From TrEMBL:
Residues 203-326 form the Integral membrane bound transporter domain. It comes from the Bacteria. Keywords: Membrane, Transmembrane, Transmembrane helix. It is a multi-pass membrane protein. The chain crosses the membrane at residues 20-41, 53-72, 147-171, 191-210, 216-234, 241-258, 264-281, 286-302, 314-335. Its main location: membrane. This is Integral membrane bound transporter domain-containing protein. Pfam families: FUSC_2. It is found in: Membrane. The keyword Membrane applies. One of its GO terms (cellular component) is membrane. InterPro entries: Memb_transporter_dom. It comes from Nesterenkonia natronophila.
């Protein structure tokens, strides 16, 4: 069978695109795995309970490096400061609420510059460690003191972030590049203001009544659902809910089956995180991204053998956060539509 020149051209183009996607995807997978290496090292030591802080530093810094190494350094500095402040204000509800409200305003500023993806990732991991019981390291008594509660998380975040910067700098020329898409000033201000109100109020509730459970997921849900545009926000309400429920079910099943094999669970968590980051960079279907991210976060923050109860809590907080965002988005849409109708009628 003979092929026309047009068919041959399309075939070559398809093969090139497929090869480029494979190479880039394989590089991303390998790179994120290398960044996760400190987490595996720490998880095998007496500092294992502090492993999530390694990820808190590494993930946002790595994503920032795709925009540029200067932004990666800035992200590392801000993330370290955020974690230090979080450990200092915890467990005072008003301090936690003020910190998350300030984070919401900061997200608006980042959106103005087109760095929303980086800022959201930094806030996601920090919020999960903010609404959580105090860090406990068996056999290391000084960590239970106030100074230890600040120094250990900050050191872990710094270590993960510095490793991410080093690896990104080494492979900088081979990394895919992301371009910033700045928002206009008014949209960024509305976005930051909405997040400040939502995150501040949710943080107060979570730090007052939900400190012994997975209340940080309420903040996480708000962070990943709320977008500068109403259409994007509505789409994420559904996608986030579906992805979280399915991802939570998968993580609960894995945690129940392999409850006595922590190394395997850590490996599954790392693989899920790698997939989530690749999906984020590729701008893939958001429900699939939420599915992978949920598995990673659940397995990384698993405490004890009662995985199912903790997972039900996480799903419940996700649905509650999604419902809260949906109600506020519908209210805003109703108010703005009424205002438009009045202007038209006048």
């Amino acid at each position: 069978m003979a092929f026309t020149n047009d068919e041959l051209s399309r075939s070559r183009h398809f093969r090139r695109e497929l090869a480029q996607t494979f190479r880039s995807g394989a590089l991303m997978m390998a790179l994120v795995l290398v960044i996760a290496l400190p987490a595996f090292v720490v998880s095998s030591t007496e500092f294992a309970p502090a492993t999530p802080f390694i990820v808190t530093g590494a993930v946002p810094v790595f994503i920032a490096a795709l925009f540029g190494l200067r932004l990666a350094w800035d992200t590392l500095g801000v993330t370290v400061l955020f974690v230090a402040c979080a450990e200092l204000v915890n467990p005072w509800p008003w301090g936690v609420a003020a910190l998350m409200a300030a984070a919401g305003l900061g997200l608006g500023i980042c959106a103005r510059n087109g760095w929303t993806a980086v800022a959201v990732q930094a806030c996601i991991w920090c919020s999960l460690t903010l609404i959580a019981p105090p860090l406990e390291l068996p056999g290391i008594d000084w960590v239970s003191g106030r100074l230890g509660q600040v120094l250990v998380p900050v050191w872990m975040v710094l270590m993960g972030g510095l490793w991410a910067v080093a690896v990104s700098a080494l492979l900088n020329s081979r990394l895919p590049k992301l371009s910033a898409k700045p928002l206009n000033k008014s949209s960024a201000a509305r976005y930051g203001g909405a997040l400040a109100v939502l995150l501040g109020s949710a943080a107060f509730v979570a730090s007052t009544w939900l400190t012994e459970v997975t209340g940080g997921w309420l903040l996480l849900t708000i962070l990943v659902i709320v977008r500068p545009g109403l259409a994007d926000t509505w789409g994420r309400v559904v996608s986030r809910s579906v992805g979280t429920v399915l991802g939570g079910a998968a993580a609960a099943l894995a945690g129940s089956v392999f409850v006595n094999q922590p190394l395997l669970l850590d490996t599954l968590a790392a693989v899920a995180l790698i997939v989530a980051v690749v999906l984020l960079v590729r701008k893939a279907n958001y429900a699939v991204y939420a599915f992978a991210l949920t598995i990673a976060v659940v397995l990384m923050n698993m405490d004890g053998s009662d995985v199912l109860t903790a997972d039900i809590q996480r799903v419940g907080f996700t649905l509650a956060g999604a419902m809260l965002v949906a109600i506020l988005a519908a209210s805003y849409e109703f108010i703005t539509s009424r205002g438009s109708l009045r202007r038209v009628s006048s």
